[in-house]
Amino acid sequence: MALTPARRLNNPSTQPSKLKIRNYWGEIVRPFGKTLSEEGPVSATATNAPNPTAPKPLSMREALGIAGFKRLWFAQVVSILGDFLAIFGVINLITFRWHGTPLQVTNVLIAYIVPITVVAPLAGVFVDRWDVKRTMIASDLIRAVLILGLVFVTRLQHIYVVFFLVSTVSSFFGPAQSVTLRTLVPMNGLMAANALMSQAFYTMRIIAPAAAGLLVYWFGEKSCFYLDTVSFVFSAAMLSTIVVMRVVKPQQQGGEKSVKSLMKDYTAGSRFILTHPAISFVMIAMMTGMFVLSCFSPLISVYVRDQLRAGTRAFGLISAMIGVGLIAGTQTVNAVAKGFAKKRVALCGVVGLGAATFVLALFKTALLAGVSMFGIGFAIAFIIVPTQTLMQQETPHDMLGRVSSSFMAVFSLSQLLGLVLSGTLADWIGVRRLFMASAVLLAILSAVGYLWLREDKPAAKRMQAAG
After folding, report:
1. Residue ranges of the chain with pLDDT lower than 70?
2. Domain that holds residue 447
3. Are 432 and 307 contacting, i.e. CB atoms less than 8 angstroms apart?
4. Judgement on whether residues 234 and 315 belong to the same structural domain of the protein
5. Edge to edge, what strands does the sheet with 245-248 contain?
6. Does 298 lie in the same domain as 391?
7. Whole-number pLDDT of residue 103
8. Is there a domain that residue 3 lies in?
9. In angstroms, rounded to a whole number, what is the distance separating the alpha carbons of residues 109 and 163?
10. How far is CA 387 from CA 215, 309, 348, 403, in A?
């Protein structure tokens, strides 16, 4: 399919309301809510059209210069902060006011993770058919109402239900946000954009506990729930100002809505992942990284006590290093990865994760434990950011909702397994041996990944097959 010249895209006289604009893969681009003439000129960048020469990757500052993405990122920052405030508010309520058990606190997290693991893959099928902007706004407003319900809870079961429902709605928001990010940011800016989104998440993860503690001390747990409700409303308001140009295929517009057609779409998305060597590998790499993070986090306190013979201060400092490593990694990966294939960067992340885990298992000093935890966080950032970027770049736009939702499900499943299995495995073989076994498995995965990626097909052939 011949490319549409950029000068034609920027010429208002050639933009009637039903003009079909095609991108690199020959897919049709159309705006949601407004016609092309109402939106004004459409740049080649907005449709991810390629230039004769490879464009220079955008820096984080340049990515934030994209107006639509800046609003999406800011909405995400506020919403994530609100989410963590609500989570820590609930944990404080159960632990200190209701005097709940560790299992009851853990069940809250499980109630939040399980729906994403189960619902997200099917949610992606609907996201690929729906208006992503309206999907995100509706998700935010529904979650605002659900979180407000926490103000009135009187039983533990009420909290489980609220978190289960919030997670179910979030299963639709996540893939819709991924589609939106790809439409707002040019291909050469996706790495920077994903790094910024991940950095926002991990930064808020560090800031939120202290903020929630102060809020609960001054105003009580309900203040956290009110603020989270406001954060969702703010996010919806910000998203309403973004113009989303989505790529769709003609058969998706008003297509079949039977169960058979939904399963066909779901199967097509799964087949694309399984037959794409690079995406299959980075998905496994991401799952491994998140499993290690979720598995190690609750065990660090035991490791510090039994192996390092240290106390609370050492535990706090060593635990904090993994968050510092995550933030540093997301800040660094965009600059370091320039000129390298995303799958290779993710593979380097797996190698680094194995090396950092090996140091943690081999040496029993507080200093090296802190360094290794920093290395674990740093390496995981080198897995997650390239994985998200590769997924967005390689997936045909009409499948992006399904593929990104599958990534969400795998991400959540690995967290759930790490949370559930960490204690059992540590009791069975010991914390230090568990760390060493993890390092060995990561080394094996690195070797297999290297051989696996050598057989990867050229991108042009994959795109041709997908079309």
Report:
1. 1-54, 246-258, 455-467
2. 270-455
3. yes
4. no
5. 21-22, 28-31, 245-248
6. yes
7. 79
8. no
9. 8
10. 36, 38, 12, 12
